Automatic annotation (TrEMBL):
Pfam family, one: E1-E2_ATPase
Compartment list: Membrane
Matching InterPro entries: ATPase_P-typ_cyto_dom_N, ATPase_P-typ_P_site, ATPase_P-typ_TM_dom_sf, ATPase_P-typ_transduc_dom_A_sf, ATPase_P-type_domA, HAD-like_sf, HAD_sf, P-type_TPase_V
Ranges that cross the membrane: 17-36, 73-95, 115-134, 296-313, 478-500, 512-538, 1081-1103, 1132-1149, 1161-1180, 1234-1253
Entry protein name: P-type ATPase A domain-containing protein
Sequence ranges assigned to domain P-type ATPase A in this UniProt record: 377-433
Length: 1330
């Protein structure tokens, strides 16, 4: 009888392991030596690290070393060996052959499973730890094996910069960039699109180097841009070809913005080299070793697919960004005393540029689209002539803008200043028309054009700065990104206890450790990486697709769409889709956003009106009365109306500011006939123009009138009433101020008109300051925007450049300020003391009230009549219940901001006890007037810094900064296909686009939460079920069951959930925006408890059946294929499929933000496809189909299907059927009664879950009572998360924002003092916090 070969157990004391341990130790020592050597050399070289305070940048120089290269090569070889040993161990385990002891073939076939497991664990754990360490320190990996050196000798530079963007967010950037050498032997690096050149005097790479040769002007990229410099460059003939070559090869570089598009391989490496995918590698390799190859391959395929989808999405965004950045035109520049046609990439700072439109005027009427017009390729300052440009592609400004030549002065010109923009033309804008330059200075083939000097090129242009902000600005993300990490930590905590429970039951042997580890892998699904992205991508695709007007009318309640109207929203940043759904505060610009596009000139208030009755001189004289001939407009006022403008004509289209366009149109209605060029009309000629100045708030023209022998010269001035009135002599009566305030309250935009006689000898020498002094007042012109806004269910504030009182009128009309609110306007006196003055509308004014100054009678009862008794009752009402809205102008806003008290006036103080912020009645600022573009950004930032999700809706260039600063900015009437002004842009001017964005954003947010909860709850429930299976008898599902459950059903349901469409109307309620909020936490908890309870009930019923026999196995735990022939495993499988289907349907409940689940056809189809096969498995007995899944199977059929052709595509240990039957009886049939009970329990469980979810989770308990009474909401969830994260300094600021209302008194009490149109200040000096 042959002697049995003994089983060999190989432990870590074997020679092969010792060799690996020695190699690893030696490699560790080598890396430690490299690190210590690098630290010592860094201290030795004083010029190794240089800090540039002006650029807030730190630079460190490095160069390769032999020791570093050798150590890196050895480290890479060792890491490759670890991977090879993993593969060898996999294959050897499948063949049951030990590969690491050559020459003993028979003995190698009898090595224990524990020996293979030890061989697997060593490289598996080592690789995982190495990858985690490399990912943690990946930023230092590039220079770890390099030698520190001076920047002068460096071949690589590690750059670290800290940048504060326009949102006030500071973000750190760090990267290692190679040093390149140009043809002129300049050493340079490229960092965030900018070129940095080595400067020996600074011993660093700088974007603005100071060279010893000051005459080399070509090297000076940045300079003060003044009118003197621009005209001097014009006289010098611009830049020579030689100097241009120097500049192109120097710090300036080519006039192009190079957006790096990573290759597919590079993008995949960046994506997959993350902690999540390292974890997936950890899980997949365990699947391969655990004889679970099919699932391992499918998991690998899913992980790779998810990663590739994300890489593709980001690549497409980069390609769109590159398309925006690419400008390829032929330009005319003056070099070497002649005009040359050069490629736009060769433009240099200081070049003289000829501006001319490609289309003739007669073609402009039909081809006004920007793509038919030349694009400006660099920022330049206009020095001769005038231009009309379309800036919608850059800033979102809807109307064409006229540009004027700069004067020859020494004032520094800043391109982004509102005052200086009228002289600058920006890269990326469309040139509609150019003319007015001297013909002798233009090229011979150009009949009409303008001249400009190039000021900024490439990434330093306005377009380049915008693109750099988009590429490198701080990202704005929901707080759920950080909360998701906490959720994952919670899952790890649960998994730890499950791990202990299993291993305590099996005494911590290698089989139980790997089995428990594999069980816990299912806790975190590989699909989590795309769970949030799926809903956002689906919403973005729907927004990018044009909606027909019919669908728009059905979905947008109250929106009247024309037959050919379409709404398309271009989504530039997909990550902000969910942010759009969380918006709880929306900032609106007034002009053209919540009012209809354009202004209407509604009337005049002439100074020639001699009426002394208040009702007469306060009433506007409508334009229609003058047009119809009922009245005759004062001659000088009519001349000012017709001539005080900078409007030009392009074909048949008038180009200019809205106010001036309406003035010219009104003048034409009154009979004024303009000559070509718009510089003369009737008998008047414009001699000189002074364009609008944002500092003086005025615009003026010098005109001449000739009628026969009669000739006179007049200066007409228009501007704000405050600016014009201070320049008038004699001083204006106070009634004009009251009239301006009255009509501003009625929603009018008021400008004042004045004039002055000028002698003939002063025409050529008069300055603007002289022309705008000692004026004669002519009257007022009133304009109005008709409101178009409809309520959207979020809190709204107005942030406008118009006057505060005009904003109040519009805000009241559209409901931003409720009708029953008292309105107070903040004012600063000469000593910068803040006082609040009540604005009394005509409806609130008591009848018979006397004017404070003149004593005249109040207006008639039709303007609002109220008895003195009613007024008295109002004065005596409880001041704490006073409903108040506050209004501030730009100067008051700056005052509050500088004093640190702005936060007190922005938010609900909870004293109103009204549910929802949008219906709050607390005293707070609802209108911001006279706001500059920078102040609009500050308003958005202040709200965002106080735990608000802020949206911005605007339509002009002045809003572009705020649009980018907001969490979700929507540019109305922009060029949807190319605008970089905002994350969202549309070519529609309707607020239906905003409503559509909010609906899609809320649907995206709810879908992302539903998908995330689906995976988390399913992971927790299924992991606990696996734990129960192990504790019962080490049970497993059949191989096909795992494939069906873990891969097919989960991925299909996740795809179906992401296709949920938004609700047809916008709900006034904002969805929950925190993973730790009550809806997410309570619904997940109820689902977990319900499903595990159902499982317990089914097991209890099964265990009490007379035909039931418990499963017992003597095989090792790792032989999982032998542990699925029983009664228990089919129950777990059917139950798991049921709760997966039920979970997907319940979490797809539409509620207020999505359509009902039965309108999601993809979900219905997937549910039927997944549930029907399982229902058949439960109802049928003894079929081949049953035995393939080992459900209701018998031994004979099981043996028979072992010859099935399906086995040809399965691994040996995954094949169906077999020659051994491990069940405790000859079949595993469920009785008919048990099947009925099974179905009844599952049906009742689904019904109970649906009722609880719809009535409790989506009902008043979780939606209202818990957030309002228990104060468990998004804000408290965020504070709790911060506490758990030990960020106490941030918690303090959050508590200060959320709880200050408990201790805050709104200036003591609000006096109920009345005030007439004089707006006398209240006795209370301010509402500041005591």
């Amino acid at each position: 009888m042959p002697q049995a070969t003994p089983v060999i157990d190989i432990n870590y004391g074997a020679p092969g392991y010792i060799v690996n341990f020695v190699l690893f130790s030696a490699l560790f020592v080598f890396n430690a030596v490299v690190y210590i050597r690098s630290r010592l050399q860094a201290k030795r070289f004083a010029d190794h690290c240089v800090y540039l305070p002006n650029e807030n940048q730190t630079q460190k120089g490095y160069r390769p070393s032999r020791l570093g290269r050798s150590c890196r090569a050895l480290s890479v070889i060792f890491l490759i060996w670890m991977q090879c040993s993993l593969i060898i161990t996999f294959l050897s385990n499948y063949q049951h052959y030990w590969p690491y002891s050559p020459g003993k073939g028979e003995e190698n076939k009898h090595v224990t499973w524990d020996s293979f497991t030890r061989a697997f664990l060593l490289p598996w754990i080592t690789t995982f730890l190495l990858l985690v360490g490399l990912r943690r320190h990946h930023s230092s990996l590039a220079i770890f094996y390099m030698c520190p050196c001076s920047l002068e000798r460096a071949t690589h530079v590690k750059v670290h910069s800290s940048i504060e963007d326009e949102n006030g967010n500071r973000q750190d950037f760090e990267d290692v960039v190679p040093v390149s050498i140009t043809a002129r032997n300049l050493r340079m690096i490229e960092w965030q699109l900018l070129r940095y050149v080595y400067c020996s005097s600074k011993d660093a790479f700088t974007s603005d180097p100071q060279y010893d040769n000051d005459d080399d002007e070509g090297m000076k990229v940045e300079r003060d841009i003044t009118g003197v410099w621009a005209n001097e460059m014009h006289r010098k003939g611009g830049v020579s070809s030689e100097m241009a070559s120097v500049m192109l090869d120097g710090p300036q570089g080519r006039n192009e913005i190079t957006v790096h598009i990573p290759s597919i391989l590079e993008g995949c490496v960046t994506e997959f080299f993350s902690f999540f995918y390292i974890y997936q590698f950890f899980a997949v390799t365990l699947s391969f070793y655990w004889d679970y190859v099919s699932v391992g391959l499918m998991m690998s395929l899913l992980v790779l697919t998810c990663g590739v989808i994300k890489v593709y999405t980001e690549r497409m965004q980069r390609l769109k960004m590159k398309e925006m950045a690419t400008l390829d035109e032929t330009i005319l520049v003056f070099r070497d005393n002649q005009w040359k046609s050069v490629d736009s990439h060769e433009a240099c700072v200081g070049d003289i540029l000829c501006l001319t439109s490609k289309l003739e005027d007669e073609d402009a009427e039909n081809e006004n689209h920007p793509h038919h017009r030349p694009l400006l390729t660099a920022d330049c300052i206009l020095i001769s002539g005038s231009c009309v440009v379309d800036e919608s592609l850059l800033t979102g400004e809807t109307m064409p803008i006229q540009k004027f030549a700069v004067s020859e002065d020494k004032r520094v010109r800043i391109p982004d200043s509102a005052e200086h923009k009228k002289h600058f033309l920006f890269a990326g804008t469309c040139l509609l028309h150019a003319g007015g330059a001297d013909q002798t200075e233009l090229p011979d083939h150009v009949s009409e054009g303008g001249l400009a000097i190039v000021t900024h090129v490439g990434p330093r242009s306005t377009r380049g700065i915008l693109l750099r902000t988009l590429l490198f600005g701080s990202s704005t993300r929901l707080h759920i990104v950080a909360e998701a990490q906490f959720v994952l930590a919670l899952l790890v905590f649960i998994a730890f206890w499950d791990f202990l429970a299993v291993n305590l039951n099996y005494e911590f042997n290698l089989s139980s450790v790997l089995a428990a580890t594999f069980m816990l892998i299912s806790m975190v699904s590989p699909l989590l990486s795309v769970a949030v992205l799926g809903g956002q991508l689906a919403s973005a695709q729907r927004l990018n697709r044009k909606k027909p007007a019919k669908e728009t009318r059905e979905q947008e309640e109250g929106e009247q769409a024309s037959a050919d109207e379409t709404i398309q929203i271009y989504v530039r940043d997909v990550d902000r889709m969910a942010l759009a759904g969380k918006i709880d505060l929306m900032c609106f610009d007034k002009t053209g956003t919540i009012t209809k596009t354009g202004l209407d000139l509604i009337g005049f208030l002439p100074a020639s009106n001699k009426s002394e009755t208040r009702a007469s001189w306060e009433e506007l004289h409508p334009l229609e009365g003058y047009v119809a001939g009922g009245e005759e407009l004062d001659e000088l006022l009519a001349a000012a109306l017709a001539l005080t403008h900078t409007v030009s004509r392009l074909g048949k289209q008038l180009i200019g500011h809205q106010v001036e366009l309406r003035m010219v149109e009104a003048a034409e209605q009154l009979g004024w006939k303009y000559e070509e060029g718009m510089k003369a009309a009737n008998e008047w000629t414009i001699v000189k123009q002074w364009t609008f100045d944002h500092q003086t708030m005025t615009m003026s023209v010098l005109t001449a009138k000739e009628r026969g022998d009669e000739k006179k010269n007049l200066v007409f001035v228009k501007g704000s009433f405050e600016a014009v009135s201070t320049r008038c002599s004699p001083k204006l009566d106070d009634k004009w101020r009251r009239a301006v305030e009255l009509h501003s309250k009625r929603g009018c935009y008021i400008i004042a008109i004045a004039c002055k006689n000028v002698d003939d000898d002063q025409i050529l020498t008069i300055s603007r300051q002289q022309a705008e002094s000692s004026l004669t007042f002519l009257g007022l012109i009133a304009f109005r925007n008709e409101p178009k806004m409809q309520h959207g269910g979020v809190e709204c504030v107005m942030v406008t450049g118009d006057s505060a009182l005009t904003g109040v009128a519009v805000a009241k009309t559209v409901g931003i300020i409720p009708e029953d609110h008292f309105v107070f306007v903040g004012k600063l006196d000469d000593k910068k003391n803040l006082s609040w003055t009540q604005v009394v509308s005509e409806e609130r004014k008591p009848a018979g009230e006397k004017d404070a100054e003149s004593g005249r009678a109040a207006e008639s009862a039709r303007d609002g009549e109220k008895t003195r008794e009613e007024g008295k009752r109002d004065d005596e009402r409880d001041e704490s219940s006073m409903k108040t809205s506050l209004v501030v102008s730009g100067d008051v806003f700056e005052h509050l901001l500088n004093n640190g008290s702005m936060g007190e006036f922005l938010h609900c103080r909870k004293s109103c006890r009204v549910r929802g912020r949008s219906t709050c009645e607390c005293p707070r600022i609802r209108v911001f007037g006279r706001m500059t573009p920078h102040q609009k950004v500050q308003v958005v930032r202040e709200f965002a810094n106080n735990m608000r999700t802020v949206g911005m809706c605007g339509d002009g260039g002045n809003d572009s900064g705020a649009l980018r600063s907001a969490h979700a900015g929507l540019a109305l009437s922009g060029r949807a296909e190319a605008s970089v002004a905002a994350p969202f842009s549309t070519d529609s001017d309707s607020l239906a686009a905003l409503t559509l964005l909010l609906r899609e954003g809320r649907a995206s947010l709810c879908t992302s939460f539903a998908a995330y909860r689906f995976l988390i709850v399913r992971g927790i429930v299924w992991t606990q079920a696996k734990n129960i299976m192990f504790l019962i008898a080490g049970l497993y599902l059949p191989p096909l069951g795992y494939l069906y459950l873990d891969l097919v059903s989960t991925s299909l349901f996740l795809w179906a959930i992401s296709l949920s469409k938004p609700s047809s109307r916008l709900s006034p309620r904002i969805p929950e925006g925190s993973l730790l909020g009550p809806q997410n936490v309570i619904s997940a908890t109820i689902s977990v408890l319900l499903y595990l309870s159902i499982l317990g009930i089914l097991l209890a019923v099964l265990f009490t059946r007379s035909w039931f026999k418990p499963f017992q196995s003597g095989d090792a735990l790792y032989k999982w294929q032998t542990r699925s022939d029983n009664y228990e495993s089919p129950l777990f499988f059917i139950w798991a499929i049921w709760f997966t289907v039920d979970l997907a349907i319940v979490y797809s409940n539409g509620h207020l933000y999505r359509l009902p689940w039965w309108k999601n056809m993809a979900l219905i189809v997937v549910s039927v496809l997944m549930a029907t096969p399982i229902l058949l498995l439960l109802l049928l007995n003894g079929t081949d189909y049953n035995c393939a899944f080992k459900i209701n199977c018998d031994m004979i059929t099981y043996f028979k299907i072992s010859s099935s052709p399906v086995n040809k595509i399965l691994f040996p240990y995954e094949r169906i059927g077999g020659n051994e039957w491990y069940a405790p009886s000859e079949n595993t049939f469920y009785s008919h009664n048990f099947k009925v009970v099974f179905l009844v329990v599952l049906g009742l469980g689904s019904l109970f879950h649906a009722v609880v979810y719809s009535k409790v989770i989506l009902g008043p308990v979780v939606q209202d009572w818990i957030p309002n009474r228990l104060k468990w909401n998004d804000s408290s969830a965020q504070i709790l998360f911060e506490l758990m994260s030990l960020k106490f300094h941030h918690v303090y600021s959050l508590l200060q924002t959320s709880l200050f209302s408990c201790f805050f008194k709104f200036g003591g009490k609000v006096p109920m003092q009345r005030e007439d149109q004089d707006m006398q200040p209240m006795t209370k000096s301010s509402y500041s916090n005591e």
